[in-house]
Here is the input.
Amino acid sequence: MTRAPKSAAGVARPGFAWAAPAAVFFLLFAMAPLVLVAVLSFANWDGITEPHFNGLDNWVALIHDPVMSQSVWTTLLLTALGVLTQTPVSLLLGVWAAGHQRNRAVLSAVYFVPLLLSATAVSVVWRAVLDPNFGVPAQLTWLFGDGNLLGSRSGALAVLTFVGVWQFTPLHALIYQGGARAIPQVLYQAAAVDGAGTVRQFIHITLPQLRNTVITSMVLMVVGGLTTFDTVLILTQGGPGTDTTVSAFYMYQKGFKSYDFGAASAIALVLVVVATLVSLAVVKFSGYDRMRGTAEGL
Amino acid sequence: MGSRFAAIAAASALVLGMTAACGSGGASSDAGSGTIHVMVYGDATNKVEKQIAETFNKTSKVKVVLDTVPGADYQQKLQTVINTPHAPDVFFNWGGGSIKPFVKAGLLLPLDGFIAKDPGLKSNFLPSVFNSAVVDGKPYGVPMRGTQPVLLFHNKKVLADAGLTPPRTWDELVAATRALKAKGITPIALGGGDQWPTLMWFEYLYDRIGGPGLLQRAVGGDREAWASEDSRKALAAVKDLADSGAFGRSFDSVKFTDGGSPALVAKGRAAFELMGSWYYSTQQDANPDFAESGLGYTGFPTLNGGKGDPADVVGNTNNFYSVLKKTKHPEAAAAFLKLMYSEEFVKAQLAVGNLPTTVHTVDFLDTAASPAYSKYQYELVKAAPSFQLSWDQAYPQSASTPMRTAIQQYVDGKIDADAFIKAMQALPTS
Amino acid sequence: MRGRPNYLAGFGSLIWLLLVGLPLYVLLLATLRTRADYSTEGPLGLPAQWTLRNYLTDLSNGFGRDFLNTLTVTASVVAIVLLVVPPLAYAIVRARGRATGWVFRLFLLGLAIPAQAVIVPMFYLISKAGLYDHLIGVILPTAAFCLPVCTLVLTGAMRDISPELYEAMAMDGASPGRVFRQLVLPLSKGGLSSIVVFAALQAWNGFLFPLILTQSDSTKVITLGLYEFQTEHGADVPGLLSAVVLSMLPILVVYLFARRALVQGLMGVGGK
Here is the structure.
């Protein structure tokens, strides 16, 4: 307050102290546990007695565990299915909601209701709705057949993907709506003058303009997809067999059902590495990092 | 554990503790003096546990606080808290394998001391049941519910409408499933989503075909038992039944724990269900009218040419209360355990269809919710040459998930008999 | 505004209306039926007999307590986030030190850490610290896992403040504290409301931390109550779904009265 710097170089800037509370908090609750995960993955721990090191045992067992590799593939598959289904639906919905049709306000209030439900509530509702004996399939047999949606791998994966779309589309549609609103109208007016139709406008103006929004939304989808847990726990329990056992659920099973916390930690570490790699890949592939880089206000 | 791990953990825990001390929010738990926490498996029988706790609290200065944990998560919660400051004083368990790890970790209180003061804590219970909670020669549990043989339940009306009588042999059961299927009724309700109800079919078929010795050998570490001729026969029988559509087509989407499969039977959408004897209290709770008049039961059918005695049963001998060594109120815990052979307890259990295993139970059978049902169970268990403990309780806890997964995959046709045998051979044995 | 209505998106939105509408229809009607009615008549028809009993039963079964616990968790998480994120974002945007840069990278890395991955040691730490089965033991990790996204969103918002404004303030000899209070905070209101919405939704809907880190009825949150209801009495669909409706009511109220702020907040999560 006493200083009166004359040039921009002398502007009073916040010191590290401003960042410290958040950094310490985050280190303690996210990074320290992460380090412990790494350490525990080399240990044998049943949750009752004290952990003791067992070298590479957990990792060797994990490499030879067919369920583990299957769970990684299932996780990646569900993530990919999630991105591929949620992106078009939420893109169309978001762009539509950004327009000014008369019925839009009323309808969009209904559209976004899934947003108000927790993943737990969403799973609970869909489990009841899709119950083969007392749910909708029992009444619409022409559509659902015997209603055994969760009895096959493809059926269970389809249900999980569909519930994902139902649950996450509103959020991503909102993100797209925000993005679409920010597109300068001039671009559309110019295109209209050139005689471009709605579809061409969408492909040549809307999509390119929404590039960064698409990337942000996709990163969120990827991270969300890789960590799918609530829906699997409530809807399929990883079944039938191990067909929908995603890595996060397998880790939960190993740790909190079989009490092998060492093995669970090893799976957790794989999960972190995969999540980091996929996020980095998306960021690199899309140029998201350069975008952040230029915005760096240093 | 290495010093680095300990250091990180200690430092983080210390800071966390300080944060907690600073933060004024958060719920305060009633872990103060004057209470003992009793942790029980949450289900329909809880009303008895609540009643007994109330009775106890009327006269005792140290009060019992009942913590019910939903069944599906009970074991998980127990294992995670048992060695923390939030461990209960007394907890529900299945005896035998389910408490062995806790005994080994030195967490449980041997009950010799209690029994020395009150010999009734042992002598009032059927020895065969009491002994399933004896580990390394010391008693660690007191029976606290009823014995739970697995029975074949049916909807009387559905069978009558189809002109069928309860099957006594396997062939009759198979014929009945065909007849029911032809009528568009799911022959057998199966909570395949829970996985362990499917296991019960394996348990009985293995017993009837191979005799109780087969599993004893397998649990004892003899991997060849799974590859034996009898094992393959039992597997073929399970598969034939499932492939014939006896369980319907959607059993993987149905659960017992959430009340799904019992509802199928109660509403007449399915005819049979193989389940532990608690099924009666499940139905009594959810569908009281059906439990009273529509629910029929038999033992598992006999099988021609099998090695097992047709009178054998499988299931759980009982559930037990065990006491933690670090409880602050051992006297109160002992006094609470004494209620498990009281007249009130026996009557309350019988009233919900459970069959307590005290030596006096037989005197009260007429007070049961369904005296006929209680007497039937009593005679069945008394006459059984073998009472096979559920596989997932006989094996160590870590075998449970892979075992159930293999069971489900086999019934679904995802893996064949060879792969199933391999999976079972890979299970850890203690 | 475009000249022509977007038929393609309009068509998609109609299908979406059906997909959202059907389960909501089943959800609402089921809660107004008796249990017997639901299992005999099925979910699609109108109830033979209307009833509010399901709601009353839920309310007498501890829903109020779960609600208060969830409210405590949500308010505390939002408070923590509001306390630590704005200064951090300000430092990231304006500080020159290398340390701050590292902190930013740490948080970017944190985006990819799933909460599930650390649940085992988190349980170990929380129980060692004596926080197991206390709401504070849920609040702290939940808040920590909100930080990366909140930081990213708010940093984005603060970057939009033009350097000229900072320089103008500096000319007046303002300290970082004053710049923060008088310039940065007022101009990043949008970002702040975004992180409040995000953190509140995360806390309100959080499931994994309460599942692992609490146990008693006295610390139960709504999501856990739903899950336990489902695992134990899932066949009582009307009772279960009434609990779902009750659980979404508070957010619905917020949605109705502050829809604009909520929607703007969520739009902001995507950044630009």
